[in-house]
Design brief:
201 residues, mainly alpha, globular
């Protein structure tokens, strides 16, 4: 659990701002690196191979960015990077399949958000396996990653950045994702802090 010393070191607004910044940077750089590497390794590769490799690379960078903050908040979070990369590798093809199926019934924005939500559920579940050892109600994290990833997809498509390119779009995606998951992280940390204080009452 978070100790009182750790929580006083990080004001909630500071924690949220840093988390959003790291998440946005991780998503932007991660997706860009994933696209370059995946299509470089598999220029004529199958959809599944490109999705898995791209998802793993993106998750690796996103997980690393988030780890820089999490390691200062909670102990034994070393598996976070691997959990995020493996979850993203599994979730990417499943998310694309979900989007393709949903596209037969829904608009492009809704189908894309469902695909993103599926990815968020998968890597959120693997991250939950780590967080549940630290927080009593860590299952909220899976919901947050699903909503956050879907919100990122909606924000990107709504703004329609076009000339600014895919990188700027992924930064926007990361900002929305970071906001939702950052609020969830704050809620979990506050709850944990209250539980610690109650033990001394």
């Amino acid at each position: 659990m978070l100790t009182s010393e750790q929580t006083t070191t990080w004001p909630q607004w500071s924690l949220l701002l840093i988390w959003i910044t790291l998440s946005a940077s991780g998503v932007g750089i991660g997706i860009l690196a994933a696209s370059i590497l995946a299509f470089g390794v598999f220029p004529n590769g199958s959809f599944i191979a490109v999705s898995i490799v791209g998802g793993f690379v993106a998750g690796l960078i996103i997980g690393l960015a988030q780890w820089f903050l999490l390691r200062q908040l909670i102990n034994e979070v070393g598996w976070w990077i691997l959990a995020t990369s493996v979850g993203s590798a599994i979730g990417s093809p499943l998310g694309a399949i979900t989007q393709a199926i949903a596209g037969n019934f829904l608009t492009g924005m809704l189908s894309a958000s469902l695909g993103s939500a599926m990815i968020g559920i998968i890597f959120g579940f693997l991250q939950w396996l780590i967080l549940r050892k630290k927080f009593a109600r860590a299952s909220i994290w899976i919901v947050a990653t699903a909503i956050g990833n879907a919100a990122g997809s909606v924000a990107t498509k709504t703004l329609n950045l076009g000339p600014l390119g895919n990188f700027a779009g992924e930064i926007v995606h990361g900002l929305a994702f970071g906001l939702v998951t950052g609020l969830a992280l704050i809620w979990l940390s506050q709850k944990s802090q209250r539980e610690v204080l109650q033990e001394y009452v």
